[in-house]
């Protein structure tokens, strides 16, 4: 007997797999930036993305590779690479270095709000009442997680200082929120997943290397350092996450896929509590309990799909 899985259910499963993979990014970068730098983290992760995606494209597809793209799909994937893989990642990794993974990941997950708004107004996708309730729960859970973690990390911090602390991850969340719009546009042009991800990876890498050159901070990578090893782990995790995420977007709407990816904060909080030393991450039970609200919201979104 063959078990048939609907496209909606498969999209849900792929989105959850992406959340698990993306959680590794936060943890590996947090461990690596204890002794390493953010620029090295972004560059190593981008190079891993390119190394894992571009060769399979060259092997699986025949030249001319330009036939895999339309001008619009190529531009869309390049835009996704610049927004999500370059700008968002730079802001996100800097936030992980400064305030930790367990605070950054919930704030980053607010991208679901931006992604949903962009999808409704730019792609014409429908937002049902159950979707809306689920997204509200996700946002409320993230707000509580962020506030609790900020208070635990620095209890003497003022409300104004707390807001300033969260600027980096919120800015990254906006960039990540627009990324699926570019991706969906590229996929709708008929471009397969791997070539699209290859363009994203190359565009993000070119953009970041150009940024480093302009800032005068381009330098060789220390391949033998422990930090680089952690960054490679982050690169592998993000590549797997993107493949699952792309596959989910190919068969399911943005308003279903993106909220489910927000399971990442709960995964990060639980793993941080169990495995990371307290000098790096201090995660309390209220943080984990609040993160469960995100799971409830994500479940509502998936069930309404």
From TrEMBL:
State the PANTHER family in the record: AMINO-ACID METABOLITE EFFLUX PUMP-RELATED, INNER MEMBRANE TRANSPORTER
Q: Which domain of life is it from?
A: Archaea
The record's principal subcellular location, in a coarse class, is membrane
**What does the UniProt entry say about where the protein is found?**
Membrane
- All residue ranges annotated as the EamA domain in the record: 10-146, 167-302
| Transmembrane regions | 12-29, 41-62, 68-91, 103-124, 130-151, 163-187, 193-216, 228-248, 254-276, 283-303
State the taxonomy lineage.
Archaea, Methanobacteriati, Methanobacteriota, Stenosarchaea group, Halobacteria
Q: How does it sit in the membrane?
A: Multi-pass membrane protein
Q: What is this protein called?
A: DMT family transporter
User: What single Pfam family name could you report for this chain, choosing any that match?
Assistant: EamA
């Amino acid at each position: 007997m063959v078990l048939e899985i609907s496209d909606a259910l498969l999209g849900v499963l792929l989105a959850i797999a992406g959340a698990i993979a993306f959680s590794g990014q936060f943890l590996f970068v947090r461990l690596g930036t204890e002794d390493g730098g953010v620029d090295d983290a972004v560059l190593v992760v981008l190079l891993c993305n390119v190394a894992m995606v571009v060769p399979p494209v060259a092997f699986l597809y025949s030249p001319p590779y330009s036939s895999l793209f339309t001008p619009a799909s190529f531009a869309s994937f390049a835009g996704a690479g610049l927004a999500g893989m370059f700008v968002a990642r730079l802001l996100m990794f800097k936030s992980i270095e400064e305030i930790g993974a367990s605070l950054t990941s919930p704030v980053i997950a607010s991208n679901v709000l931006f992604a949903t708004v962009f999808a409704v107004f730019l792609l014409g996708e429908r937002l049902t009442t159950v979707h809306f309730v689920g997204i509200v729960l996700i946002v409320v859970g993230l707000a509580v997680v962020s506030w609790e973690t900020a208070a635990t990390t620095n209890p003497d911090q003022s409300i104004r200082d707390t807001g300033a602390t969260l600027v980096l991850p919120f800015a990254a969340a906006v960039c990540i929120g627009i990324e699926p719009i570019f991706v969906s546009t590229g996929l709708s042009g008929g471009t397969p997943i791997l070539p699209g991800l290859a363009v994203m990876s190359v565009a993000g890498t070119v953009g970041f290397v150009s940024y480093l050159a302009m800032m005068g901070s381009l330098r060789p990578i220390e391949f033998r350092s422990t930090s680089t090893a952690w960054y490679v782990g982050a690169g592998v995790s993000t590549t797997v996450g993107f493949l699952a995420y792309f596959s989910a977007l190919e068969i399911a709407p943005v308003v279903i896929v993106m909220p489910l990816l927000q399971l990442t904060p709960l995964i990060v909080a639980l793993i941080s509590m169990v495995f990371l030393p307290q000098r790096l991450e201090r995660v309390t039970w209220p943080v984990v309990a609040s993160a469960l609200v995100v799971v409830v919201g994500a479940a509502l979104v998936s069930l309404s799909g």
